[in-house]
Amino acid sequence: MVVKIRLARFGRSNSPFYNIVVTHARTARGSRPLEVLGTYDPVPKKDTYDPDSKPHKDIKLDVTRAKYWIGVGAQPTDTAHRILAMAGIMKPKVRQGTPVTPIRMAH
User: Fold this and answer.
1) pLDDT tens-digit profile of 7-53?
2) Does residue 26 form part of some domain?
3) Helix (H) or strand (E) holding 70
4) What share of the chain is helix, strand, coil (3-state, %, to 5)?
5) Nearest alpha carbon to residue 16 among 7, 29, 25, 4
6) What distance, in Å, lies between the first and last C-alpha atoms of the chain?
């Protein structure tokens, strides 16, 4: 059975908060996950100890468990792949631009 690493949304309206979860691909979105790997808060917040710093998004992740699930074949969704790439667990996906067409030169 295919296992996915995806985000499960929590939080109020206009204030999202996500759990990074491992779940079976064919289960319902609201069902209980196999394991919760961490959390992701997409709302940028300033650091309370350094008022001059830029706002940042909060990511908490159990790296050893994430590596385990990737090792046994769990497939991350695109957003989960981006978060795992930021954590250094996976290589970032290369974005494909528009295809380059060869130019014909007049002789």
Assistant:
1) 999 888 888 999 999 999 888 877 889 999 999 988 888 877 887 88
2) yes
3) helix 63-71
4) 15, 35, 45
5) 7
6) 59
